[in-house]
Amino acid sequence: MNGDCSVSKFTFTFVFMLTLLCITEKSGKEVMSKGSSGMEVILASLENSRDVQTTLNILYILSELLTVGRGRRMGVFVSKGGTGILFQILTSASKELPPSEELMLQLHSLLAKVGPKDRKFGVKARLSGALNVTISLIKQNLQNAKLLLPCLQVLRVYSANSVNAISLGKNGVVELMFKIIAPYSKKNTSLLKVALDALGALLKSKTNARRAVDGSHVPALLALYLDWHRNDARHRHMLIRKGLLVCLRNITNIKLGRKAFIEADGMRILYNTSTECLPVRTLDPLINTSSLIMRKCFPKNRLPVPTIKSAFHYQLPHVLPVGPVAQLYSQPPGVDDVVDDSDDNEETEAETDTDNEEDEKAHRTLNDDIETDLNKLHPTKSPGRPFEELRVYERFFLELSEDFQGYNFEGSKGASSTPSSGSLSSSSSSARSTRPIIVPTAQALSPKHMATPDGLKGVKQEGSPVSATRHIQSPLLLGDIATRRVGGGGSDCGSEGAEDEGGEGAVLEVPDTALLLPLHDPDLYVEMVKGTRSVPQYAEVAYPDYFGHVAPTFKEPHLERVYGVQRSKIFQDIERLIHPNDILDKVVYDLDIPRVVPFTFNSQFESVLNTQWSIQYEYDLVLNSDINSNHYHQWFYLEVSGMRVGTTYRFNIINCEKSNSQFNYGMQVLMYSVQEAISGRPRWVRTGTDICYYKNHFARSSIAAGGQKGKSYFTLTFSTTFSHKDDVCYFAYHYPYTYSTLKMHLAKLEALRTPHIYLRQDVLCETLGGNICPLLTITAMPESNSNDHICQFRNRPLIFLSARVHPGETNASWVMKGTLEFLMGTSPLAASLREAYIFKIVPMLNPDGVINGNHRCSLSGEDLNRQWQNPNPELHPTIYHTKSLLQYLAHIQRAPLVFCDYHGHSRKKNVFMYGCSVKETVWQSNISATSSDLHEDLGYRTLPKILSQIAPAFSMASCSFVVERSKEATARVVVWREIGVQRSYTMESTLCGCDQGKYKGLQIGTRELEEMGAQFCVALLRLKRLTGLRNHQHLLDLESDIIGTHSPTTYVMEEDEPSFLEAIDYSAESDNEDAEPENEHASNECFHLSLPEFNHHEL
């Protein structure tokens, strides 16, 4: 009797507490407040309770407490061991026959609330035996929706643990869930939604996904989705429809699931239902998930070319035993691009606990590439080669021993040369081929569409048209080109007389760009082309390279991304799969087999690209691999002609390799119109609409990928229209800058030299392809040959600059052009800079790659910026000899004050620098280091900080000074580590534009790139003023003041752009266009592009 009385009092007490909590929120706060023992009392009472009603009362109280202020209160509950107590009570109560339904309901309801907040929830459930209890309850209460709902909610949390998901699958829970989900009904929709969530979580396990396939549940899921789609006309149950799609998405993560999806006609079902959803913006989550599933299940195909190896081959003097080239040479014929089973990556699941996805994400975000070996992080000068071997490089440093005796400084004021200068212009063309050089497809320009200066009168043209013209004689331009006869009759442009077609007196009136481009000379350019050796033996000159480029005066803002453009490409791609007979699939252009079609391509000139074509108004282009490789595709430069005015053409480059691109963030391709050039506007302009960059359904095998997992390709797609009839247009990834252009610019700069400038051009070495690699020395002439002046001349600090090691990074050459023009300029700042430093410059480290249109490599098939640790003198001559120059300087104690390698970056905006810092590398890793390990001069930050203050395109926030293992063989790291140059940098210039400063929202052009090169020079002058201070402590204080050491630069990850507004995983999407062809059958022609002298890549 006393026992019953005690239980009644206990029950009454908790009923009173529950009532109090319901009446006032203050009581709940007091129970959960810091320092209060209220929660411990409640949990102790719950654990010791032996009465069902008392237990229920306590559970009611906990439910009320945890419902309000869920986050913090849940944390307190979990930290006090509440989850374990609930599981203990659950397993104990399940042993009662029959168990209390109300108790089970309340326990599962509370567990469903607590589970997502307890990181060890899944482990606790499995160890306590709660999994089996819940499964048993679900099986026994399939018709009891009231109890079934909280059980499914808890099951959903259980399944988030990978080990639990596998265990539940073994116990038949996957099959059980398919008994619960049902066709369209207005009843129990909440229960169905939770059941689908739980099933989706279970199917993340590949083992469970295979069970679903084996149980023939893929057709059932598709049927259910179609049923809900048809009946949910008012879209009130979108979450249920989304849950069905999530289940399909997880099943199709495995190869068997994708096969079952295709066999069940899933592509057609999801395509049709998604198309019907398109008009309703709120259904975008369904469309996006359907798109992802369809894209994933789209059959992976090989590229529509016989081989993914380069169309050109260069026989190397020898092949290293290991490396990508050795792998390429060892591949048997015919298997270089076969998609094999290894591409599915269906490895056996590891039964390890992953209770919290956030923990996994946090672990993945740690950069495993950061160097953690402190011995490698501390620069140690390593000569590498004995000085006797390096003494031969003394001849490249004549300025360090020049005494200028016998040089007439007074007479030199009117002279035009210096005694120590050399020239490349003569050697560049000597002993070279004298093959005829022509401008290609000039016949596309007809006389009646040729504009002349007279034809431009009274018409206001945008930009600054070139007013003068020059007459170019045949046979430089071959074919039926637009011509005017010099003298005799003065016929206008519109005349079509037969006498104007061809004839030995024919000339082409073209703009004289020399008025606006002092460093450009078309005739000189052609001479330089004659001395350039290419593997394909290019014999044509592209119009843009011949005419030159005058930067437009108007602004070119980032292109605003159209919502849904990426999705539309996917849907059209899928439509092609569903309706293959609507496609006319034929090749219209190939490097090896040119075709004559109304709309024609050409890629047979220096720095270009190989292509293949697609439909009448839509073309698929395939980029040629770098020579001696089977990959590296991004750069392109090609010519088109025969276009219809006003017609929209779509171009799809279908074998890009980078996983993301600035084309998704406002960048456009570049186009050059010959008609515009002849009309007085010779310039590259940004063009293209509906631009998108995304993963497509083409792939290369694990064999082609060097034994790694097979890789998918990406598509760059854009549309454009043409304004002029009979025009010849060029498209390029970025502003082209050929090797011949460099030689022309160097010759023109030498001609502009004044007697006060010391300029010497040396041939550093000859490349594999037989082209010369220029080395420039620029400084100021000494004031006289007095000892003091000669001493000052010899002891100037050295600055070592290089560029274009990656051929596709043409923007690096434009920045270098700005630097060279500034150094050779007549401004007081330029004169001061020359008096302050001696500049050693290698303006193009990879001439062969540039000439032959490679994207990343040299003729050796290797990335030269990964060869600095141990360059081979035969295979990597430019790197070998450039490093030897630096080693020689280190030996004679004249290491450069600054080393900077100019690059371009395809996935970031702005201009920024990568440098090397022990301290900042340690900050970004988990290694422990002493204060002495972290001691370093902050001088490495001075130059980028100065640039951020004076160069509008430069962003200090984008800079990084972290040393990574994958970059240990790059110029920046090797020069820092082995040569001991503290200020060793890579300067990266965007291909797109800026998102800060003066140029925010604008695409970058050659004017801004050249300005960046000039501002780099100005920054060096400011750096000289700082490093010239004799008081070293004062220097450190000043640098600290400039730098602002309170906020170290954080490590810049590879992807720094936000997600797209359209919530699509672009990496799982396909390539497709939404152009509707005018004819009945869309022709999907494919064309194989090759890149000869241009290409683009980042460090």
UniProtKB/TrEMBL annotation:
Region feature (Disordered): 331-362, 411-437
Catalysed conversion reaction:
C-terminal L-alpha-aminoacyl-L-glutamyl-L-glutamyl-[tubulin] + H2O = C-terminal L-alpha-aminoacyl-L-glutamyl-[tubulin] + L-glutamate
The primary site where this protein sits is cytoplasm
Q: Where is the composition biased (Low complexity)?
A: 412-436
| Keyword Membrane among record annotations | no
The yes or no answer to whether the keyword Chloroplast is present is: no
Q: Which residues form the Peptidase M14 domain?
A: 735-1024
**Keywords, ordered alphabetically:** Hydrolase, Metalloprotease, Mitochondrion, Nucleus, Protease, Signal
What are the boundaries of the signal sequence?
1-28
Q: Which InterPro entries match?
A: ARM-like (IPR011989), ARM-type_fold (IPR016024), CBPC1/4 (IPR033852), Cytosolic_carboxypeptidase (IPR050821), Peptidase_M14 (IPR000834)
State the superkingdom: Eukaryota
| Required cofactor(s) | Zn(2+)
EC top class named in words: hydrolase
Write out the GO cellular component annotations. Answer: cytosol; mitochondrion; nucleus
Pfam families (alphabetical): Peptidase_M14 (PF00246), TPR_CCP1_N (PF25571)
EC number(s) on file? 3.4.17.24
Q: Where is the composition biased (Acidic residues)?
A: 337-359
Family to which the UniProt record says this protein belongs: Belongs to the peptidase M14 family.
Name of this chain's protein = Cytosolic carboxypeptidase 1
The record lists the organism as Astatotilapia calliptera (Eastern happy)
Q: Which gene encodes it?
A: AGTPBP1
